[in-house]
């Protein structure tokens, strides 16, 4: 049977790939949108946030993010996976309002990155664009045998997974998946991908935290039963809280993962999982799947970029199934 060697949770924010001098400009650009979203305000005081935006603090946090990303990369490479199962959200990339499944698995032979062009992104994200998309159409090899197996086993266990084998015309593989290859594993030969899309963003059918725990448990059983000798790594892409950082929620998640507390994961507040923070659902799912494996926080960096408390709670976490 397949060997689930471990996995990781990793933020995929463009802020990881924006030079520290551009963090404030990116934060300034989003202020109007924050008002439109009506998100809960930050719990930090203006004085505290002024300190967070000191140039020395921003530089140190940028460097910490780069170290954590590299450490996560090296720990995953040491697991020697043959295939990656990546759980991410689709932000109107493959799925639009014509259909928005709560959970979907692709089991065709390949998916294309069909780049929208840098003009589709804010100007402050220019330096990050190449870590999401290629300059031209770029094809990602997938693992249809494992994808189909996961669909069949999940359905048998009561998880109603949508499935597809053909890429919708004119639509692209999402940045939650391309980031893993273009940034986390930058420059390395590409391992086959099994993309699992959770609808974290769009009401009314986002999986609840407790449902994510159930999905994770059954996903683990499905991977373990795959009749193959390949080594599988499981990755949660995205998060943590953003665009408004909630350090308490982020740290609570990481602590629950470290102590293997599925009950705490299942009880994370749905009202805190809005917009980018909704990607925490991907981490809950992976955490439940890797419940029995030693896990640790590589680092947590609250990367503030504005006096409104916006930014991204950068999280990096690894599980090693072969650790003694």
Can you put this structure into words, describing what you see?
With 324 residues, the protein is of the alpha/beta class. It is 34% helix and 19% strand. The strands form 2 sheets. It has an 8-stranded mixed beta sheet with strand order 6-3-7-2-8-1-10-9, with helices on both faces. It has a two-stranded antiparallel ribbon with strand order 4-5. α5 packs across α7 and α7 (209-224) crosses α10 (280-289). The model has no long low-confidence stretch (mean pLDDT 95).
Tally of individual helices: 10
Q: Using the alpha-carbon principal axes, give the shape.
A: globular
Report the mean per-residue pLDDT as an integer.
95
Low-confidence runs:
none
Q: What is the first-to-last residue Cα distance?
A: 21 Å
- Based on CA atoms alone, the radius of gyration comes out at 18 Å
Oligomer: single chain
**Largest sheet, spatial ordering of strands:** 6-3-7-2-8-1-10-9
Q: What percentage of amino acids are in beta strands? A: 15-25%
């Amino acid at each position: 049977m397949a060997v689930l060697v471990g996995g990781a949770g990793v933020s995929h924010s463009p802020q990881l790939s924006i030079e520290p001098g551009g963090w404030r400009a990116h934060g300034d650009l989003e202020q109007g949108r924050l008002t439109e979203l009506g998100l809960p305000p930050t719990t930090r005081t203006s004085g505290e946030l002024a300190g967070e935006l000191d140039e020395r603090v921003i530089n140190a946090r940028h460097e910490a993010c780069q170290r954590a990303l590299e450490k996560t990369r090296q720990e995953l490479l040491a697991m020697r996976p043959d295939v990656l199962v990546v759980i991410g959200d689709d932000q109107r990339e493959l799925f639009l309002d014509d259909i928005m499944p709560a959970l979907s698995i692709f089991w065709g032979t390949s998916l294309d990155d069909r780049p929208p062009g840098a003009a589709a992104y804010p100007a402050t994200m220019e330096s990050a664009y190449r870590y999401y998309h290629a300059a031209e159409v770029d094809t990602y090899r997938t693992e249809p045998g494992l994808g189909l197996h996961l669909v069949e086993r999940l359905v048998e266990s009561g998880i109603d997974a949508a499935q597809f084998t053909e890429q919708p015309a004119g639509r692209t593989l999402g940045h939650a998946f391309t980031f893993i290859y273009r940034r986390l594993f930058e420059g390395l030969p590409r391992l086959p991908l099994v993309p699992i899309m959770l609808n974290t963003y769009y009401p009314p059918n986002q999986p609840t935290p407790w449902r994510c725990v159930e999905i994770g448990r059954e996903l683990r059983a499905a991977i373990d039963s795959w009749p193959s000798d390949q080594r599988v790594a499981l990755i949660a892409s995205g998060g943590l809280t953003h665009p408004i950082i909630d350090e308490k929620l982020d740290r609570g998640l990481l602590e629950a993962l470290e102590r293997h507390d599925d009950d705490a994961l299942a009880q994370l507040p749905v009202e805190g999982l809005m917009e980018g923070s909704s990607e925490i659902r991907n981490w809950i799912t992976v955490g439940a799947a890797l419940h029995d494996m030693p896990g640790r926080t590589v680092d947590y960096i609250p990367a503030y970029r504005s006096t409104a408390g916006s930014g991204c709670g950068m999280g990096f976490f690894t599980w090693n199934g072969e650790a003694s």
